[in-house]
Protein: (2Fe-2S)-binding protein
Organism: Vitreoscilla filiformis
Amino acid sequence: MSTLNVNGRPHTVDVEPDTPVLWALRDALGLTGTKFGCGAGLCGACTVHLDGQAIRSCITPVSAADGKRITTVEAATDGGDKVGAAVHAAWVKHDVAQCGYCQSGQIMTATAFLKSLPPGKQPSAAEIDAAMSGNICRCGTYARIRAAVADAAK
Ligand code: FES
């Protein structure tokens, strides 16, 4: 048994300590917004926040989340998080998603990136590309991702 703090609430999950956070979220808690892509920390589809930092949940064991706050795309985009809500709105405005599979991970990386910026800082295209470079989109929606992140930063 492990206790995870997910989206502001404690959850007891019946998983081994070395179970990836991804599977605790999806299988034990039913939070399927977080996606499985490569399972090897390479694609970013499984990105969630751990104490506000974007992490790969497919290679992060439940034991590493002990005493920390996990935030998933469900909470980041439910309107209660100002930056997450701005990113979500920009995603819709710019019609970013094509197949959509990587988008929750993209949104989580973008949200953590924007929160890491000093107040009032408008990131350059190069800074956005660098921040988002670990999230792969096989549909190639990178131009729309860049535009949406820039818009959400305003
Ligand atoms: Fe975790 Fe690809 S599924 S990085």
Notes: Helices lie at 21-28, 73-76, 82-93, 103-116, 125-132, 142-152.
